[in-house]
Amino acid sequence: MRSISRVAGPALLACLFLAGCSSDPLGVPDAPSSGTAAPDASASGAAGGGRSLAVGAGPQKHYTVQRQPAAGSCRYRYEKGEPLEDPKCTPGAISPAVTQANLKSTICRKGGYTAGVRPSAYVTGKEKKLNAASYGYAGSMSDAEYDHLISLQLGGDPNDYRNLWVEPADPGHKKGSGVNNKKDPVETKLHTAVCAGKITLAQAQQAIVTDWTTALSALGLS
Questions:
Q1: Distance between CA 220 and CA 33 in Å, rounded?
Q2: Average pLDDT in the 73-95 region?
Q3: Which of 15, 58, 83, 218 has its C-alpha lying 20 to 30 A from 120's C-alpha?
Q4: DSSP 116
């Protein structure tokens, strides 16, 4: 057998020597401990176009604290003063447990869905602090929401780091008054439209990851 030095280039040998080269722009060296895979280019929210969405691990009996992007590696964007996520750090991830075919037994079922799949405050509290460092968020933690980019009521993955970010308060928010942002009503309207059959699940998911501030108008729901 030929030695590795004859078949591998100098760059590869240097990479191996230095414990591996990472192509992850977020600075997350390993896959999250829940078993969440890296974004799959073939994974999509379903038919309906738009960019491919990563598929997370889905609901778990026991959630664990997930690794977050490296401190200071994420940057907020703003649209008319409203905060938007960094798509490199928080591209969104969907749950494999929610599909267009099973809406009536999942997100659209009577009695609710989200409470049964939401991670505990113990887990999300620790993740929120780590994610705040990722985004360089230095404001009041009580005024910021640890938000699912694709909400649980729209089939977002419950605890995939790609679907969670510390969302700052809206412009004009009174400091110390708690979480109250304009993204939540948008998610609720999208959920209502999905369950009423006005739009597909994939359309709602794509609209929210593209820009939550224009999601309703983009789908003719504003």
A1: 39
A2: 96
A3: 83
A4: G
Scan for tokens 């038919």, then name that residue: 47
Say if CB 51 and CB 206 are below 8 A apart: yes
Would you state the structure tokens that stand for residue 100, as one six-digit string?
């267009």
19 vs 128, residue with greater confidence: 128
Q: Rounded distance, CA 128 to CA 207, Å?
A: 24
CA pair distance 210, 150, nearest whole angstrom: 10
DSSP labels for 11-47?
A: HHHHHHHTT-----TT---S--TT-PPPPPTT--SSS
Q: What is the DSSP secondary structure assignment for residue 70, as one 8-state letter?
A: P
Give me 85's structure tokens: 């996520």
* Contact partners, residue 49, CB within 8 Å, separation at least 6: 206
Q: Which residues on adjacent β-strands are paired with residue 93?
A: 54
Longest Cα pair distance anywhere in the chain, in angstroms?
69
Q: Give 181's pLDDT tier (boundaries 50, 70, 90).
A: confident
Length of the chain: 222
Query: What's the rounded Cα separation, in Å, for the pair 129 and 198?
Result: 38
Q: DSSP labels for 118-186?
A: PPPHHHHHHHHHHHHHHHT--S-GGGSEEEESS-GGGTB-SS-GGGEEEEPPPTTPPTTS----SHHHH
